[in-house]
Amino acid sequence: MTDAREKRKLARERLRRLRALAKLRKLQEKTAARASKAPQPEPSAQLQRPKQQPAEPALLETEIGTSQRNELRQLEINALERDIVELSNLTDPSDSSAGEIKRIRGEVEELKRDFYAHLDSWQRVQLARHPQRPYTDDFIRLLFENFSEIHGDRNFADDPALITGMARFHGKPVLIVGNQKGRDTKQRVARNFGQAKPEGYRKALRAMRVAAKFRRPIFVFVDTPGAYPGIDAEERGQAEAIARNIRDISRLPVPILVAITGEGGSGGALAIAIGDRVLMLENSIYSVISPEGCASIMWRDATKAEMAADALKITAPDLLRLKLIDEIVPEPRGGAHLDHAATAKLLDQVLSRELEELSRLSPDELLHQRYDKFRHMGQFFV
Fold first, then answer.
1. In angstroms, how far is CA 108 from the centroid of its own chain?
2. Is 197 in contact with 161 (CB distance < 8 Å)?
3. Which of the residues 12, 194, 214, 309 has an alpha carbon 20 to 30 A from that of 157?
4. What angle do CA 104, 29, 110 make, to 5 degrees?
5. Is the domain of 316 the same as that of 208?
6. 129-169 per-position pLDDT tens digit
7. C-alpha to C-alpha distances, 145 to 141, 166, 175, nearest whole angstrom
């Protein structure tokens, strides 16, 4: 019982610190809101002030501090959950302390909801790259039946970084195309970390043409940091393969549904992401460049990746607001990496609904809508 009391005491202390962090965050938000509403000084007053140093380093320090606080808060929540499980195992359900444990569990759940509702861009980048996130082969296993893989581009070789194959989705024959990163080091090296080479994009296009010939819808799962940038890929025409895919996929007269499940990096993602519906999992990202690459170009400093992630607007809510995607698919609380089956179930509902809508359209209507969709992207810059 002494151990149980100590654990309860530790849990209460952690909960107290989490409440203090939550109050501090709300206070910071109120302070920032008041500062934004405060009247700006007159130009003459600004001229009379002594010259100050640029505020960029201080801003960076503040952002890094916020990120560290969020990480500590997540660790505290995880520790609290472990303590609750241990306490539940040590406590008799009929004991008076069971009610207290139930109350603490409810407060932890409330803290979790608050925490995951206020993730910043860099935290979503980390979740999108989580090594336990579901990959294409996981979605094939959970959503489809009778999968038969297609290999090779009939020109150079097979690319294991891209999976293609025929399957059945709720009894309907479909084609699946998706990136595959691999779980452990051996698999990642074999899959080239999900970075496709020209033969991978040509394999995908070959399979998509076969699907179009037999009027089979196409499901695309995107999770790649980008196309492979090696010399061998450039020698075999990486840019040409990506450009050809973008052109030819846009002309296929069958429904194409794209789901960004993790990272959607640059042309490597766009080469297979030309679809009638582009969906994003809640904690996935879709960007023209990685935050680290952007920071290296803009500030000559890859450590400013957090600032770049926020500036790039790469999260699902940002892209939906900019009308670059069609819908956000929610994830289980804590992220897709915690429950693959629940993630697949949520995605299945959206894919089924969208496929049913697209199946009602004629090939000409599909092509016309697809052209209008991509033609009108980016008009907010005009």
1. 25
2. yes
3. 214
4. 20
5. yes
6. 988 999 999 999 999 999 999 999 999 999 999 999 999 99
7. 7, 9, 11
